[in-house]
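Help! Submission page says 'invalid entity' but I think these are all valid:
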Amino acid sequence: MIWDLHCHLSGVDGKTVDERIAKLMEYADRMGVERLVFFMGWPFLQDPSPEEFRKQNDQVMQAISHWHDRAFGFVYLNAKYVDESIKELDRCVKNGPMVGVKLWVASRCNDPEIDPIIQRASELNALIYQHTWFKSGGNLVGESTPSDLAIMAKRHPNTPLIAGHIGGDWELGLRAIQNSPNLYAGIGGFDPTAGITEMAVRTLGADRIIYGSDIGGRSFSSQLAKVQGADIPEVSKRLILGGNLKRLLTPILKDKGIKV
Amino acid sequence: MIFDSNLYLSRWPFRRLPNDETPQLVKKLKQNQISKALAGSFDGILHKDIKAVNRRLVEECQSSGPDLLIPVGSVNPSLPGWESDVIACHEEWRMPGMRLHPNYHGYQLNDREVQKLFGMAAERGMFIQIAMRMEDVRTQHSLVKVPDVNFEALPKLMQQHSELQVTILNGMKSLSGASITKLTANPNLTIEIAMLEGVGGIEKLIKQVPYQQILFGSYFPFFYLESSLNKLKESDLGMQIEKQITWENAQKRFLESTQN
């Protein structure tokens, strides 16, 4: 059972989102990926206005509409626009089909300004994915590090939060989140550097690690390899490839009548 | 049966890698149907005593994988007396080719010494491998920031030696579009798939590059071996193209030519 936390509607031809997701599903079938989480439309916008993130979320909702039990959506928000983001959360999650939140690089997540968004998402059982990187050349101005997320996680100790890309430089990222029990490592979207998953299991335990691919910019192949090729027990692989994400999403999926 | 064109032995300088002990590495290769592999040495990146690096590489290949591992010596044309390393690789150790790391060794491909090196390789019927990068520039050690190799001078350099085979290793994360088309206009230039990303990556690549110029490469043990193996499944290549990419292209270019 493979559940993919991190998918985009990119990397394939198709004039419409419906065409694109259908093509992506062909690749998912080849690789045995059963369920997929999509977020953000296209083109990628680092600092979207409310009008722009609403449009992107419409694209994702359209794309997943024909794949009810298989493709899930996370609502793309911008913490610079707190009120509009909360309205969008309600539109797409409370009153719509989406089951989580995607926060990218518009503003750093350690800023308490973000808290009302996190609180509202938590009330709705929406799973929160925050992009994080530790770039040796320096992050973007609004780009969060895993350390920023650890600061935010302390303010929301009962809310599960995913550190996307686990900071890219995972030897740092894993250290940064190790003492935050509500933080999970998203291990998709960076090179398949050997040792990542072994260190993640040693540092966090297998139940705090989640597979994701970051298709279409990345491949299923390279990202699945991080788990399939790791020297860890099979039971750990099963948790990372799908068990953990399924567990975290089950409450909201059940609320929405989606079979798990 | 797979021919891996991109393997490294010894130690990555910045962390221990799973499978960086050669017997363990060979065991894993055999378990995954890799029956030939061109092996360079991580020591060749930073060590100055290149002859010792290459001697150890040869001994390691002979003792742990004599039928499987083919040593490809490092040469650094910015070192005094580098020509003797080429001669030793060819005459003493009978290596079929050599591996270059211009960015770690601080030279450009249009430097005069490189012209001489290409000339020596051509005269001796050796192939040249050039590693474009060793890791994502965003995750490099803060004291060792190394830009990607610039290949602008390569087409002209290759034109001077009509028989010389050149392979770009770890190039597919950075090279795309016109830059890859321009390089592969020369049929003696090959690329390998270790850093190829994107959903259905090889399927897309063969629309840009003749499949006769695409090689299987894993960059194992820095990358999980499963990454490149999975790519063969993620793309629908057909048996003949897959066979060429995984075996025949490399066999024909690197082994048959040197055996004649």
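Support: the input was valid. A stray whitespace character was the problem, and the output above is from the cleaned input. The two ends of chain A are 11 Å apart (CA to CA).
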